[in-house]
Structure formats: C-alpha cells, structure tokens
Write a structure and sequence with these properties.
Blueprint: E1 8-9, E2 14-19, E3 22-27, H1 29-35, E4 38-42, E5 49-50, E6 55-61, E7 65-69, E8 74-79, H2 82-85, H3 89-92, E9 101-105, H4 117-123
Antiparallel strand pairs: 1-2, 2-3, 3-9, 4-6, 5-8, 6-7, 8-9
Cofactor: (R)-lipoate
Function: The glycine cleavage system catalyzes the degradation of glycine. The H protein shuttles the methylamine group of glycine from the P protein to the T protein.
Pfam families: GCV_H (PF01597)
C-alpha cells in the first residue's frame, strides 16, 4: 500500500493535498482496498461551505456505502468529473486520477492536526 509523504491523513481514511488555501481530497489506498470495487461516488455538496469532519458525500462499493468526511473546513469547488463514468479510478489510482474533490480551505492551519504518512501507517497497522 502507498502512503505519499506529502499528504495529510484523517482517521476516517481521507487524504488531503494542501496547496496554499486550496486542497484536493480523496480516500486512501487503505480505504479503497477495504471497500473493494467502487461503483459510485455521490457528492451533492458542490458550492457548499462545510465544517471540518462534516460529511461531503459518499462512496458506494459492491459491499457497502461509506460516508466521506471533509478533512478541513472549507468550500467544495470541484468534483472530479472522471468519476461519473469511471468510479474505479479511486481503486486504481487513489492519490492521482482517483481524487474526489477540490476545495478552498477556510483555515489551512486545521491541516496541522491531521496525521502524517508515518502516523497514518501506524494507525492502520501497516
């Protein structure tokens, strides 16, 4: 499993790539592996400003549906358009083509409270 060092991670298995006050969010390699084959991504919060840890959508796999939680507070600006026709991109490339949303972060300092790659590795027992 991959744990890119430049990302921040949550206990709910989302990752955050912070670039100034903009961020890209997805689910971790560990999470996609646990969920199995992803068949649908449901995000209905485009344009909404949400609090840290608020549900911004859900991911549907063959065996289950799982909520997606915002790693930091901010506004959902973009949903990955490729996921409509190819949700399996989350399985195949969770940190690249399988990103889920892009957002404007309200307070970039909130990311300081998230886990590093090493912390997340320990958290999932890898």
């Amino acid at each position: 499993m991959k744990f890119p060092e430049e990302l921040k991670y949550t206990e709910d298995h989302e990752w955050l790539r912070l670039e100034g006050d903009m961020a890209t969010v997805g689910i971790t390699d560990h999470a996609q592996h646990e969920l199995g084959d992803i068949v649908y991504i449901d995000i209905n919060t485009l344009g909404d400003t949400l609090a840290q840890n608020e549900v911004f959508g859900s991911v549907e796999a063959v065996k289950t549906v799982s909520d997606l939680f915002l790693p930091v507070a901010g506004e959902v600006l973009e949903i990955n358009p490729a996921l409509d026709s190819a949700p399996e991109a989350v399985n195949n490339d969770p940190y690249g083509e399988g990103w889920i949303i892009r957002m404007k972060v309200s307070d970039p300092a909130e990311a300081d409270g998230l886990m590093s790659a090493d912390d997340y590795k320990k958290f999932v027992g890898a």
